[in-house]
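Hi R.,

As promised, here are both runs. First protein below:
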Amino acid sequence: MNDFLSTIDTPALLLDLNKMDANIKDIVRFAENAGVNLRPHLKTHKSIKIARCLLEAGAIGVTVAKVGEAEVMVAGGINDILIAFPVAQRTKLARVKKLQEKAKITVAVDSMEQATLLHEFFKNGEPLNVWIKVNSGLNRVGVEPNEEVVELAKHINNLTALCLNGIFTHAGHSYAATSPEQIEKIANEEAETVLKSVKLCEEAGINIKHRSIGSTPTFKIAGAIKGITEIRPGNAVFYDMIQVGLGIATQKQCALTVLASVVSKKSDRMVIDAGSKTLALDQGAHGNSSITGHGYIIGYPELVIERLSEEHGIIPLKHEVDLKLNDRITIIPNHACVVANLFDTYLVYQNGKVIDEWKVDARGKLK
């Protein structure tokens, strides 16, 4: 174990700055080579400092899931934000209107009813930028890439308070892929969904400037297809065991880990101070089946965090291990996005030394 880990109170969220920087450089290099813009999703890290790292590296703006996340980022000086969520409640729209005074805000739209509500709310002020979200197979939000997308585009085009300038999708079902071939197929369908939707809209006389795809497992495939103009990976800044299981990343690329301590050791089990309120219960977003247990213990691949209660992680012992009370273990989370949201701060370290502590600024901003 690194000596500096022995002085850290646990459980703690550790961020390896060298690995994160390498991941960011890799994303930016791909975007530059593919000739696409980078608008990373911040739901993974929820950090103003990490957002600035991405912008300084070459990102043109950021993506968020919630208005609350957008408010945090605007307060942090970030001025180009896509809210990739179909916002329609008046209380949220009032907050979006305030954000427009300080930043360029774009809102996802996936129905004529929502578009009409947005128009009514913004008709006496600055027009609102909107992007249509299309469904590329995740079957969550989004219109279908057929006449449905054209009907919505025509409807928006007739609403003077809205400015339609983008179509986007998110192939989140790639997280459930079982082979590289399946990921490639999903990625191609992701890009095709956007490009088909754009073509249909432009045949109807509606120009679409931005053609955006997301999803860490697919962005290097879909983002390389001619006609796509933007990528929105989120998890790729950290990576995690889901990405490792998919073959998208290696364990050595995982920049985010959880440090935990042994709090009890019995003949048949060991207990750590990292339970569901630390590691989360997510063993695989959208059905990924490559995951064993609740995180990977570095240096002890034979140990499995088999079950979690709120504050306890239980590891069955089938043979003796060289871990005793108060010893530390380092865990790569299954799903970095939900784990980061459980902590107040990242302990940032570099070359075996803690160099800073960064806030998880938008933690808990669910509204």
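And here is the second one, sequence first, then its structure tokens:
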Amino acid sequence: MNAVELNAITDWLIDGARSAASPSLMMAESCERMVAAGLPLWRVGVFIRTLHPEIFGRNFIWKQGAAEVEVGTVDFEIQETPGFKRSPLSLVFSEGLEVRGDPNGPEAERFPFLVDLRNEGATDYLALPLHFLDNTFHAMTLTTRQPGGFTDEQVAVLRSMAKPLTRITEIITLRRTASMLLDTYVGNRAGERIMGGQIRRGHAETMQAVIWLSDLRGFTALSDRLPAETVVQILNQYFDCQVAAIRAHGGEVLKFMGDGLLAVFPIDEYVGDASQVCSRVLEAARESRASVEALSIPVGEVIERFRFGVALHVGHILYGNIGGGNRLDFTCIGRAVNLAARLEKITGRLGRTVVASESFVGVCNAGWTELGEFPIAGFSEAQRVYGLAEEMPVVMA
């Protein structure tokens, strides 16, 4: 092994692996440098547990000769699978143990995964804990095809290399975790702005957007007659019916307010894409309507069915940080948001699922019917309201 090259790898990692623009490239370059320094690596895996509501962890797999690093995710259910329970990774994650196994030895009885490695010609397997500063354990696995497996000297070097690799991996993971949490709780665009430094009260910008405001019909009565746990289950499934459609069509969910949902679809005024954005919003509304209509949840002996209302409006909003002291909310405010909120209340009175303002209909002329002019609280003039011609009004009992 070349000690000078190995020291250079350590220095490169400590300096932030600056020549690698992404985690997968950093891993590929690390492995290739170690091989060039004389370490007989055939397969290397890095497994990182994540702070994410749906994803248990991410994995990065490098194989000698492969075109690129394989990147994947696993959900929380993997922890209950027999394969994971009998995997060396379960010991690394839960107890921070180092695990070494000979694919051709008795360890293959304990860890069936080693049989798969043996079938591919592996001669040794080493799983090392990556110990983060918060006392969580992540893992790196190293496999070789070298006859006789890793030497004691090579194992010692791999252990020493794991330390700087742990630190750079933790930094990358923390940045990714912060980004994912912001995406989860405030939305993608808002998260990008916060990560970019817009963290002070008053940091805001004016933008043109379609405003989407919706709520669930009969939610108060529903909350009164059902257990709180059931109501939460219903709300989660109900929001699923909208969020997927909103995001798929370019919108960002900013806020959940009880059974209410506020989303925005930004419009780039410079390229004049208002018509396209509004068309996508209308398609999202139709998809959400179909999903909510198809939603049925058994509660005892009763099958609960649901209806909702959504108001669509185009206008300028102030988008940014609002709050008091060090407790801020990244949201949108303005006359356009107020009008959308008032229009949403009209959906229930008219028995409509989708209503739109005159400004939205003026941009997206797609089979609307005028429902009349209505006085709007807080507005000096009555507002024309439109509904989809394809919808028949339904009065809730």
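A quick note on the second one: The chain has 13 helices and 16 strands. Let me know what you think.

Best,
J.
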